[in-house]
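chain below, 744 aa
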Amino acid sequence: MATFLYKLGRLAFRRRHFVALIWVALLTLAGVGAASAPPAGNSSFSIPGTEAQKAFDLLEQRFPGQSADGATARVVFKAPAGEKMTDAGNKATVEKTVHELSDGSEVASVADPYQGDAVSKDGSIAYASVRYDVSGMELEESTKDALEDAAQQARDAGLTVEIGGDALQAVPETGATEIIGIAIAAVVLVITFGSLIAAGLPLLTALIGVGIGVSSITALASVLDLGSTTSTLAMMIGLAVGIDYALFIVSRYRAELAEGREREEAAGRAVGTAGSAVVFAGLTVVIALVGLAVVNIPMLTKMGVAAAGTVAIAVLIALTMIPALLGYVGRRVKPAGEKSKLLGGGRAARKAEAGKPAKANMGTRWASFVVRRPVAVLLLGVLGLGAAAIPATSLELGLPDDGSQPTSTTQRRAYDLLSDGFGAGFNGPLMVVVDAKGSDAPKDAFTDVSEAIKGLDGVVAVTPPAPNKDGDTATITVIPDSKPSSVQTEDLVHSIRDAGGDIEADTGAETLVTGATAMNIDVSQKLNDALLPYLVLVVGLAFLLLIVVFRSILVPLKAALGFLLSVMAALGAVVAVFQWGWLSGLMGVEETGPVMSMMPIFMVGVVFGLAMDYEVFLVTRMREAYVHGEKPNQAVVTGFKHGARVVTAAAVIMMAVFAGFIGSSESMIKMIGFGLAIAVFFDAFVVRMAIVPAVLALLGKKAWWLPKWLDRALPNVDVEGEGLRTAADADRSDPDEDRVPAHT
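prediction:
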């Protein structure tokens, strides 16, 4: 592995014009494809194997032409203070609006509030339901404009009008904080490298990689049914790993220069050593993201595969474009320990000339402290993460609805108006589908189901059964007395399904519960059921991969256990902020509630991949020192001497990039951004920088134990670059590793 990557690095350095041309061509091609493709919308949401999806499919079969998957809108009207919606003037305004809404070419139906019992008891609020022939993703802009224009005309007449539903859902905005995150990353890179040019290389390559990845996703969005969230997540992860991977290679390149090697040779060795770690770190991330397919939720699978593709691009760019760019910048990238003149360069050389001893860096001092007191550091780290994980014991899962939108959106204001006028449960009606095709008395079965539901706790209203033309299937709408994302509503769904089982035994009619609320409940359950198999699959595959990398059993085991600690602590922090409301104002969380049901499994996948990044980058340096003859504890210190500064910079950069997405208007993106940022903090600074060296110090030589039969069976991937070591020793003219070359 190291030898192949060494040759690749030297080739990219020599043929830099050709390499740069290829990547620019790919970026241009992806950009042209994205510009000519239709914009991404909201991807279709199907959950195979759930009752809600089964009922949804049945509706499409038994109620043809009703566009079960069509977009919906609720136009909510509120009368001015002291007036009612039943007043003649207000009623005329609403009827005019309903007439205008009915004229659209994509409109399937519009329900008049005064004919459908859609006026609140106090008469202050009414709503008109609009159904469309096509999904929200396929709605034309002219149709959306007509909806907004009709609402605006009613506002001009003196009414308060808001629009809920999925017809007007927009692409989420990330806000200025994303730019701030990138700016912080740039500052960290400048501090780390002491050079503006060296700092600019990881940023440039990361932006090119993300540009190719996101543009490709945008170009394929309509073909593969990819939602707007897919590209946002790919951008988030691609930026973070793209900067980090390039950072590690540039850092190793500067270290090779400091040992006196020529620039082409240094580029080859940087790619051969640090590049090997990049490959395996990238593989763990890809495995974790692609493994999301095991959940069998198409939307989640697409998100994972798209993000994995962006990570793969980041790896390839780091291995090829970074050495090519290093060839372009030449002597403007200084050896490790030197800074550019603009940032105070020359001071290290002046100190060396004065004969002053080099001061141990922070990583060396910290590792020496941990090695001396491993038990205390281990206990403190484990107890701290355990305390942070406590809120996770009260984790409640759900999917975001309009109630979690910012109060500045019309969807959220419509949600609140409907809650005020009709009750909290009105925003999450349940649709009960009664399949009486196998029943001898379908009408009686419909009535039995309706009466059984009326007798359940937590039900506010039940509409009369609405049969299809054949009379073998009917729909019943149930209004709960609790909001859609509450535990009470989930209990009601299970109660209806239990009651339906008894009725099916008596009448032969099958009762199914669907609708957005029931679908969310089924998704949460499906994700819960898939979490353990997914964890076993991803951790198992990565565990095997790390055995190959480290040629050890205990080091990969320690890595996996440390990951579990960090992900549980991160989930605890997510619960504290988004469910309990701690620091919610600071995070821009306007409405607390259940944690997004995809969050645990998504965090497990992404955080595991990222956690293994730091494990590979830091511990391979320790392994390299140990293999080359150092004692176990000294190898830990050496690993920190060379890797701690870079890993710290990488973690801060990744945290800044993820935290930048906290400013998103989309609650799911906001939660994922916060969760990943805090998870990186826990994993990098508590697990990898404290718990890992403490455990390795306690284990000593046992940490690197591997059964002889397994050692013979495993392939030798040579991550440490042992194959390059002999040539390196032969090429070096000065054995002093701290020598600074005369050329700059």
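The longest helix spans residues 516-550. The longest strand covers residues 125-132.
thats it, cya
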